[in-house]
Amino acid sequence: MLTDLETISVTTKPLDLLCRAPLPRKVRLYVFNCTDHPSERKAGDYRIQLRLPGQRRRQRACLALDPGVLVLLAGYVAEFDVFVFWDAIAHSEFPYSKGIQVSATTVHHAAIHGQGGQRREVRRSGGYPEQVLAVRADRLVTGLRRREELTRQSLLKSPIRSSVT
To answer: Phi then psi for 144, rounded to 5 degrees?
Structure first.
């Protein structure tokens, strides 16, 4: 599945991977711990906090979106062994420690059934519709392929696209 790691440290953000079929050849992974913090807007929801190495308070950062690379913005919910994938394009530019949420229902559904999803409105650009995907670790390859498909669909109809391409 995932082979030939270009980076030795798995703590590096982003982690660039070279993969074999059925995955895309080049994958760039931004992965964060996903927790159900009590201060969350909606009690019980899970979230990641976007912060890149070297990013300082009051400083904006950008995900490295390169042509020909599938960029994944992910969170890992350890207690359920579930990965959550957000639309990297929708969150390509962000302030320090930006929180991004996923509903508890989506995470729990993935834990029980292998996969779950939800539609969210991203405040940026007048309510951009984002498809969030959650998959149990044993369904990771299927989830990555589905996230790639959702990303392609997003690129085709995104009002944000012009600012990223």
So the answer is: -65, -40
